[in-house]
Amino acid sequence: MRVAVYLAHPRTDSFNRALFDAVIAELRTHGVDVVAHDLYAEGFDPALTASETETVAASGPAADDLVRTHQAEIGTLDALVFIHPNWWGMPPAILTGWVQRVLAPAVAYKLETADGEPAGLLRARRALVLNTSDTPADREHSEFGDPLQQIWAACVLPYVGIRDVERVVFRTVTDSDEQTRAQWLQQARHLAAALAAAPVTAG
Predict the structure, then answer these.
(1) Of 39, 56, 131, 153, which one's alpha carbon is 20 to 30 angstroms from that of 90?
(2) In the predicted model, what is the mean pLDDT of the chain?
(3) Can you tell me whether residue 86 is helix, strand or coil?
């Protein structure tokens, strides 16, 4: 099994980073071929260029070397893991830009017409999304409608063929104590172990 783990947080001392390290370590104990991407450390440029704005036709190879590397890699994966905070009900800009630049037509999906149904091109059929938040769960759902759930499980991942999406939110992080964070890290390890144990299905 080959799994990519993507971290989108600028601080190396963040709880998101601790989740990233725990998930990678757990997957590797199960013999998973892990590709780890700290998007900030890599210097991933999230700004979509004019030539990358096609939604139906392939726009040709990206001019950015790192974008091309991510695009070539994504078709080789069996599962994806995304780790990021909830910022304004959205992923950080660097991860939003990754979605827009890497999950491009003819790379991650194909679309015959602009109003047609997309066909996912990825081999991966499963994804795990781990979020941190300082918004209580009841307020997140009653006032905001849990926008990150819509983004990942309804908009982005099904579009590229990934419909088995598990998302877990750790909250509230800023006022959490060391014991609680240790329990959350253990939960993240259990989720990673379950992902490693799932059978690989070809896309």
Answers:
(1) 56
(2) 93
(3) coil
